[in-house]
Amino acid sequence: xxxxxxxxxxxxxxxxxxxxxxxxxxxxxxxEAALRACLAKGGNLIDxxxxxxDGSSEELVGxxxxxxxxxxxxxxxxxxxxxxxxxxxxQQRDFPEVVEYGPGISHCIHPEFLETQIERSCxxxxxxxxxxxxxxxxxxxxxxxxxxxxxxAAGHDEFYRRIREAFRFLEAKVAAGVIGWYGISSNNFGQxxxxxxxxxTAATCTTMTSVSRCLAEAExxxxxxxxxxxxxxxxxxxxxxxxxxxxxGKTVLQFCQENGIGVLANRPLxxxxxxxxxxxxxxxxxxxxxxxPEDFIEMLRPVxxxxxxxxxxxxxxxxxxxxxTISEMLLRVVPGLRSLSTWEQAAGHHVIEPIQAWIVxxxxxxxxxxxxxxxxxxxxxxxxxxxxGLRRYLGTKQQSQSDGVRAKLCAAGYPxxxxxxxxxxxxxxxxxxxxxxxxxxxxxxxxxxxxFGITEMEQVDGAAILRAFN
Length: 470
Description:
Helix content is 47%, strand content 14%. It is of the alpha/beta class. It folds into two domains: 4-279, Alpha-Beta Barrel (TIM Barrel), CATH 3.20.20.100; 293-398. α13 (340-366) packs antiparallel against α14 and α16 (421-430) packs across α18 (462-469). The protein starts with a strand and ends with a helix.
């Protein structure tokens, strides 16, 4: 298949696979290697955001792009979230029209806030120009009003008024040469349509974000507007953007294709369905032996070796606040986890934080000893490798789920294939008319290799498969 796609009427041409930077962090060698591998394979679109890693994701993008001609890469970033550094900024600045959504998280698309976000994003990425700038999930406003039980047509009118004023500001940034194009990233583009805009009753209102109405607001700002990109979740279990006729009887993909708007799909391999996340990937090759408890114990060997070396060098054992060694803590925590998703929930508090706290204390006691820096460097490499192995180990517990997805995909009309499940899922999206780019979270070079394999695959009837699958 042709791996190059137009991004609407922007004149930009992108690879059908983009590098999604959610959970990508500066300082992680694997993340940096993956981004460089993506670019080396011909990838040319990077999607990040001011709130990914509290700015760390943008910093890695800036680091990797040093020395690469600007026209070689399309950089997409986003603004709207008030978290972390932005929360401290908001407490100092008192921005207008802030949506206070929950503890530690607010949202704002007012021009005064967006001004700070564009400036900070440019600084972190070491660039004076952003190819595409997106309002990041502005539907927080609709969801906040809905949660309070009084979302009506008037609430939608206020939502699109805020969109219009943000567009007016972004048009000024285009005129100033700071951004090239702009748009919206919304999780709600694929929802069923807002039933009756003329009826001022909460019962008829959904929190759907309408591409057609956003386009109307852009046209009201300027007949030569630069609203030319939208982003939304799109995967086997969340097909709304490809199958839901919610824009004057047309799907998001159909409407955008007819109106010169590029479409970027996020979460192509992480589907939210039935209040859970389904990873659309294999954890083991079909027919392969799945690892057991003895394999898990063997995975911890590098950590036990590092603990032994530590005790030999510094004449004291590794002891976490719990009194355990790191390997003992992992032996206690990991067997009780049933899946990778439970690992994601537990790892930060029960694994990462205790290890980091111990390192801080050990550094205070041992930083003057010449062996400390060498040991710590070796330990960090070992523990990162072990934790990655543990993620794969826990993932294999979900292989039966992946096998079920594959069977359902074949029943929906996908031809029999020995390709990985992730490639099959990506190929369905890559076969959709109107899709510019699928943003894949390729956090390891091996993920890059797997994803880019779809460029050699035959296209399928993506829309028909999605309808049958669901």
